[in-house]
Amino acid sequence: MMQFVFNKTFPIKMISKATIQDVPELNILINSAYRGESSKKGWTTEEHLLGGIRTDEANLSELLQKEDVTILKYTENNQLIGSVYLEKQVDKLYLGMLTVSPELQGGGVGKKLMQAAEDYARKARLSKISMTVISVRSELIAYYERRGYKSTGETKPFPMTDPKFGLPKQFLEFIIMEKVISE
Q1: Fewer CB within 10 Å, N or C, the chain?
Q2: What is the distance between the alpha carbons of residues 120 and 124, in angstroms, rounded to a whole number?
Q3: Where do the domains of the chain lie, and which CATH numbers do they carry?
């Protein structure tokens, strides 16, 4: 895993695998970035599209116990400020829940987590990364396009009646985006 270590005058920054002990902190971080008042401090908020919570501790614990799932966490001075969900699939890596603390968005943490995800895919010998993005999130789609992701032209229904994903305030669907990773 990628690791950044600096001398005492600079903050210690590190990307590493999250463990079950990180679940409470991950839960707070992810929900703060996607939903509620705190999410409005950043540009990744879904508050205008979805009510409810983005995830909970039980869901995160369940995900971390799956053999093909890894959640990378970005810490600075032992404080969790970012994370990304990765799941090995047959021929690709699925990337989801890219999260950066709302107050720190725009500072490069998301970019570093995405680079770590690409490194992870290469190590796993997966040549493609796939993700789903809510189709009306044009600013988020543009962010991923700037990083080499392209729409496949496919869509996927949003789970409109499953509160586990949030409570939709309008009709939503996902687009599927992918990036081919070179060795």
Answers
A1: C
A2: 6
A3: 3-131 (3.40.630.30)
